[in-house]
Amino acid sequence: MKRIFAALMCVLMFAVLLVPVMAEEDNFLAEIGEIPCPYATPTVDGNIDASEGWSSAQYIDKTNTDGAWGGEDVVITGNIYRAYDDKNLYIAADIVIPELSLSEGEDWIEGAGEDGNRPGWDGDVFVYTLDPLGEMINNGFISDPGVWYCFGIFEGNNIRVYRTHVNDAEVTDTVKAEGSVTDGGWRFEAAIPWETICKDVEDISYGDIVLTPADIVKEGSVIKGEMLYYDRVYDAEATERITGSRYATICMTCVDGTPGTSATPWMLKAYGMHFVLGAKATADTTTDTTDEATEAVTDEKGNTVTDDKGNKVTQKATAKTTTKKATTGTSTGGNAAQTLDMGIAMAIGALAVSGIGLAVSKKRR
Questions:
Q1: What share of the chain is helix, strand, coil (3-state, %, to 5)?
Q2: Of 54, 72, 137, 189, whose CB neighbour count within 10 A is largest?
Q3: Domain range 27-277, its CATH number among 3.30.457.10, 2.60.40.1190, 2.30.130.10, 3.40.50.2300
Q4: How many CB atoms lie within 10 A of CB 76?
């Protein structure tokens, strides 16, 4: 009996010791998956003003973002925003990071020969890579990279953009971006033209995928994508800047059935953050007119006025036109206020009934 008890105690102690290890490995809990992307045209000035139509914030941390290329601990947190209109896909981010490294020039750290390691700049880099409508995945580009749009921040709050994995070059003149350093990190806003996205996808797919903005910009379209973040730090021993960690918003399970955590993050199959395009703004115009084109003229007493020959005097009927303001299919502001008022009234009523019930109960006792 003593031996059995001792054996059980050993198993229990081993399990207790194992818990921290398992908890550490289970930091990544779930992919971000599909999130709404509203129709709006925000001003790209680096301020991320919610009143300009940006989506609600998508929070990122170690529970939905994984350490890449070696399982590094995820130390960044932040919020990602998105929007779209007929001309651009808009993306914004507000990143909090323990040590921010401003970029000084083009990337010399990773080397241009490695497919997964080309973020364009030599400081911290926020990368957004996408697969419009999932067309690259559908055409067999499962283990390939998509186009990378790489955002880096330089001295003077200067945001510059580099495109990699196809036609590698700085595209700051094409992809407008603005941002600034913050107390805990940095933020930026950017507008990526649909025309640019379509051309880049065609080039990276060797001409197999030909899309137009009209093909993509529709309610319900899904832009499959991923954020990758390059965390650059200074290495005192090497006396130079190195890549401390890389992070990616991967999926739980890849399209080929493999776990997202075991896939190389830059592969298209590992993408785990997808924008679902919302409804466009629509105008609702109502026009009311009389049934007849003309109407009789009446005097002060309501009698019909006639001319010298006894014919009725008529005039053109007045058309009434009522035009309503344009609304979006996702707007629920007015209904939400009414629902809130009704909910408060019902809650007060429920409390009143409960109070009466308690009073009656006390009397009976």
A1: 25, 35, 45
A2: 189
A3: 2.60.40.1190
A4: 19
Buried b (16+ CB within 10 A) or exposed e, 181-198: eeeebbbbbbbbbbebbb
Q: Which residues pair with 277 in a beta bridge?
A: 37
- For the record, the structure tokens of 114 come out as 């490695």
Closest CA to 96 of 117, 82, 80, 118: 80
Domain locations in the chain?
Answer: 27-277, 286-322
What is the value of pTM for the model shown?
A: 0.73
Q: What tens digit of pLDDT does each residue of 225-256 get? A: 999 999 999 999 988 999 999 999 999 999 99
The answer to whether 201 and 211 have CB atoms below 8 angstroms apart is: yes
Helix and strand numbers, DSSP H then E, in the chain: 5, 20
Nearest to 228 by CA among 135, 330, 124: 124
Instruction: Please compute, for residue 205, the number of CA atoms within 13 A of its CA located in the half-sphere on the CB side.
Output: 24
Nearest partner of 192 among 201, 184, 203, 183, judged by Cα? 201
Report the candidate in 133, 89, 282 with the shortest Cα–Cα distance to residue 221.
133
User: How many angstroms separate the Cα of 239 from the Cα of each of 98, 231, 233?
Assistant: 20, 17, 11
Q: Which residues pair with 35 in a beta bridge?
A: 275
- Identify residue 59 by its one-letter amino acid code: Y
How high is the pLDDT of residue 21?
Answer: 35
